[in-house]
Each structure stands twice: as C-alpha cells, then as structure tokens.
Amino acid sequence: MAPITTPHYDIPTHCKAGVVVNEGPDFRVQIETVPVPEPGPDDILIRLNATGICSSDLHLMKGDLGAPPMSTFGVRSPGHEGAGVVVKLGANVKNFRLGDRAGIKPLLDTCGGCGLCWGDKETYCPQATHTGLMATGTYQQYIVSPARYATPIPDGISDVVAAPIMCSASTMYRSLIESNLKAGDWAVFPGGGGGVGIQGVQLAKGMGIRPIVVDTGADKRKISMEMGAEAFVDFLETPNAAQAVIQLADGVGAHGVFVTAPAAYKTALSYIGDRIGAVLMCIGLAPAGTMMIGDDPDRFIFKNLTVKGTLVGSRRDAAAALDFARRGILKQIAEVYPIDRLPDAVEKLKKGQVAGRIVVDFNLEGTNGS
Description:
Layout: E1 14-21, E2 28-35, E3 43-53, H1 55-62, E4 82-89, E5 101-104, E6 107-109, H2 115-118, E7 129-130, E8 142-146, E9 151-152, H3 159-179, E10 186-190, H4 197-206, E11 210-215, H5 218-226, E12 231-234, H6 241-248, E13 256-259, E14 279-282, H7 297-302, E15 306-309, H8 315-326, E16 334-338, H9 342-350, E17 357-361
Parallel strand pairs: 10-11, 10-13, 11-12, 13-14, 14-15, 16-17
Antiparallel strand pairs: 1-2, 3-4, 3-8, 3-17, 4-5, 5-9, 6-7
Helix pairs in contact: 3-4, 3-8
C-alpha cells in the first residue's frame, strides 16, 4: 500500500482582492494586493480558485438593506460564493486535510448552540457571521473559515460550477423544498434568466417540477431554455405576460412563483391565476422599504394562498445542491472572468446585463474571459 503523502503549499504573504471603494450608492470595486490572513486554531485557510458575483454583493456595497455597512466590521471585500483548496489547517481542525476542496457560503459561521441551529433554521441564527459583511468575503483569494462551517466539495464538480452553488443553488434548493411543490407542478420564475433563478430552473427540472421563466432578452431566453425551462415568456414582447403564463400552466395558473428579481414582486401574484393552494416564494432581496406584496385578504382565504420567504441555504442544503451538480443536473451557468476584470463583472451586474452568473477565476491571467 502506497504511503499517504501530505501536499505542501507555498503560501504567499499577500494576494489579490476586489475591494469596495466609496461604500454607498456610488461605490466601485478595485483590485488591490492585501495580506494573506492567518487561520486560528479552529480555522482553515482556503486558496479560492473561483468566486461567484451575486446581486446581494451589490446591496452590501451600497448598504441599502438596512444592515450596518461593511465598514462597521472593517470589511472591504464582499462575496460569499467561493470554491477552492485548503492550504493550511488550524491546530484543532480534524474534519479537513490539506488539499481538500472547500466552499464558502453566505454564512461563515453560526453559534451552533441555539434552537435555530439545532433545527433546520441555522441560517437565521441571530449570532451568525455573514460572509462579505461581517467577515472578509470571497472577492479575496485567500480566506479564513471556521472548519466546522466550510462546505466540502466533492470531486467531479468544477470550481466554476461549485462556487455559485454556495449561494444561488443552495438558496433555491431551500426555497423549492419549503414550497412543498411536487413533480408535475408548475413553477414560475420571474427574473429566472438571472444567476439565482436559473439555478432554480435547473433544480426544479431535476425534481420533476415544470419551470416557466418570465424575463426579457435573447440571452436570457437562450440560457433558460437550455437549462430546462418548458417555456420562456418575454415580458417586454408579450402584451399580457401573466395571462400567457396562466395559459401555459393548464389554463389555471402556477402552483408556485419564485421571485428572485425584486422588481418582479409587483406582479408576482398575477401568475397564480385561479390556482388553489399556490405559494409565492420571496427570495430576492430588495432595498429596504422599496417593495410591498399585498392583496385583498379574501383572495388569500378563498384561494388558500401562501406567501413565504426563505433566506439562504444551510450546510445541508449546500450539500444537497452539490449532489445535483455531481449527477449532472446543475450545469455551468456562468461567464468566467479573470480576477483583474472583477470590477468589470460588478459593473455589468449593476446594469442588469448578466444572463446566468459571472464567476471570477483567480487563476485566469489577463483581461479576457470566457
């Protein structure tokens, strides 16, 4: 039997990071060289190969969610969708080895001791540490994580696929599970051509649920249909998008509506039609105080209608979403940029020009993406 060899990693003193400048409505991101952090006794140091760029990052850099700004915690690099390799272990770490693959999620840690952590609501832990807000996020290549909360990434899943799973796919998995939709049900994804919604489309298809995407543009139509949508309704080209959706959904209406694009909250209930027992799932974060959902309470009563919100995925949700990728159900939905073009990626997302996701590859040199 061949001896087990422990890999050795030359860890630099500094690394590249995307940092926010002029935090607030007029923020921008620039690339800087920053010190590589040192893991504590219960931590691992991860060299990230990839990070996803999420709309929540924009909210944190703008500071428009009503939470304390990043600067309150001394954080300059946002990001919460990281995939990489463990290159250094704290003295007490037992669940990771050097060379293991690991992922960073929207929560870097929770208290582990409250009732929420003991159940299936750990992501609502009041003592949770939010990655990219309260602790340095995945726009920085070398990042420290508590070993107990990092997510092992199985072989056979590329970092470009794994990184967005840490947030977008695990978030959608949680929402689909809590919706209680079953195989054969119709699920509508307003804004489904974006980075979170398109993961929901793939997962729904994998669960036997029938996805309809409401969005606009040829790129978003293309990716939606390629990733499993049964229909794409372009809300700019269709005179009555809600009626078109209702006709597609057996002429009755959606069993579930999964809102990932905040602008879609205004019309989300219209896709329900006459469906009894439907559910509207609130997923996409809007700037605080800008969106409201409501209707005559009689409609909720007579149609047994539910409105429900879900936050991000738990450790269990991330593992389940990764398994969908391992089985080939979750595919690459990302345009890949080198680290030096991370600021360009953020600007493109700000303008709403991204179909699917943008993933930054820390190992990709130059200014060209794919």
